[in-house]
Amino acid sequence: MSQKSLSTRSLLDLIDLFERSSHAVADGDGQRLRGVPGWDLSLRAALGDRSLAAWTERIGYAGCYPAPRGDERVPVEIEEDDDPGRYRYRCPETFRTKFVSADLVAVHAVTDAKLLNYLADLLGIPQAHRRGITAPAISGVLWHLGKMRIADAQVDVWLARGLSSSIDRVFEHFRAPSLPDQGLIFTTGQALPDIVPPPCSYRIVPITSVLVDYAVKPSFDIDLIHRLLLAPSGSKVEKSLPVRFDPYSNTLVIATKSSQPWAIKGPKQVAVVKYLVEQFEKGRHRVSAGDILVAAHGSREAARGKRVPSIFSSNNQWLDYIEHDDAGYGIKLE
After folding, report:
1. Are 38 and 104 within 8 A, CB to CB?
2. Is the dihedral of CA 105, 19, 142, 114 positive or negative?
3. Which has the closest alpha carbon to 228: 252, 200, 207, 257?
4. How confident is the model over 26-54, as pLDDT tens digits?
5. DSSP symbols for 20-51
6. Can you list the domains of the chain with their CATH numbers?
7. Residue 286 CB burial class (10 angstroms; 0-12, 13-18, ≥19)
8. SS3 (DSSP) at 328
9. Pair 231, 256: CB distance under 8 Å
10. Phi, psi of 32 (to 5 degrees)
11. Cβ–Cβ contacts within 10 Å for residue 313, how many?
C-alpha cells in the first residue's frame, strides 16, 4: 500500500501499533522482541492485512501464547512443530497437545524509518534535517525528526515512544547542555499528567491530538501546534476549527492546510471569503454563485452579469482554498 493511499484512520492505527511495540515480547530463546504478537493485533477496520504487510515486518515469534482455560486465558509455552505453519502447546485444561497458527504467535513491528519519515513528510521537515531518524537519540524510544517551520521559526521536533516507561531517560537526554532548551516532543502514547513538568521549555504533545481527525487524508494542524508552543506549559488549548477567518489580517486558515494560511487581497475577495466562512459555520458547505456575487458587490443589481472567477482574476491561489461543483462554491478542506 502506497503512502498516498494511507487514510487518517489507518495512520492512527499505525501510531497505536508503534506505541504498543514499545512493550517487549520474549521469544522462545528469551530474547526480547520489540513488537506486537499476532493475537494482540486488535486493529480497527481501517488497517487491514495489506497495510499491515506494507508498514510492518515480522521480527520473530513469541515464546508463549495465551491459551483458553474456561473463561480466562493463561500463558503457556509454545514449541515449533514439524509443520512450519503452526506451533504446539500443552492445553492447560486437558494437558493434551494443541496447535496454534504461526501467524497468531508471530511478532510484528512497525518499520521505524518508514513511519517516522512519513510523519516528517506530513510535518514538512526537509530531508536534510532528518539524520536523527536513522540514528535515534535513545534506541527504540526517542528520535529527532528534524526542524520544522512553524510561523517564522524553525522548531526542533522529536518523537518519543513508550514515554511513560522511559520518562527518566528521555528527560535526562533533554537536560544535556548541547541541546536547545526548547522544542516540541511528540509522543505516540497518552499525554503526561499535568503534575509532570516537561524538561526546560519543551512542549510534550500526543501526536494523535494534532492530527486533523475529521480529514480523510492525514494532515497535521500546524495552527494548533503553533498555539500549543505559545501557550504556557500545562494550559489547555482548544482544537482548531475546520475553517477560521482572521478579520484583522484578512487571513483564511484551514486546519488541513494550516501551514499555508491565505492572506487575501482586495475588498471583494475578502468579502467572498468572509461570506463563505460565515456560511460554513452555519452548516452550509456550498453556496450559489449568485449569493457569493451579492456578498462581493453589495446587491443583486450590482452583481448582475458578473462571474465569481473574475473576482479572483489577479491570481489562481484561490483555487487551492475554494472549490466549485454542481452544488455551488465552498471552502476546500482537502
Report:
1. yes
2. positive
3. 207
4. 888 888 998 899 888 765 556 777 888 88
5. HTTSEEEBTTS-EEESEEGGG----TTS-HHH
6. 3-110 (no CATH), 112-230 (no CATH), 243-331 (1.10.10)
7. middle
8. strand
9. no
10. -90, 120
11. 9
pLDDT of residue 43: 52
Give the H or E element holding residue 214. none
Tell how strand 153-160 and strand 182-187 pair up: parallel
Task: Please check whether residue 137 is in contact with residue 173, taking contact to mean a CB–CB distance below 8 angstroms.
Answer: yes
Query: What HEC string does 137-166 produce?
Result: CECCCEEEEEEEEECCEEEEEEEECCHHHH
Q: What is the pTM of this model?
A: 0.81
Side chain identity, residue 32: R
User: Pairing relation of β-strands 153-160 and 142-150?
Assistant: antiparallel
The H-assigned helical ranges of 73-162 are: 102-105, 112-123, 131-134
pLDDT tens digits, one per residue of 164-191: 899 999 999 998 888 888 899 999 998 8
β partners of residue 36? 108
Lowest mean per-residue pLDDT among 5-9, 74-78, 233-237? 233-237
- Comparing CA positions, the residue from 302, 319, 301, 216 lying closest to residue 262 is 319
Q: Report the alpha-carbon distance of residue 67 to residue 76 in Å, rounded.
A: 6
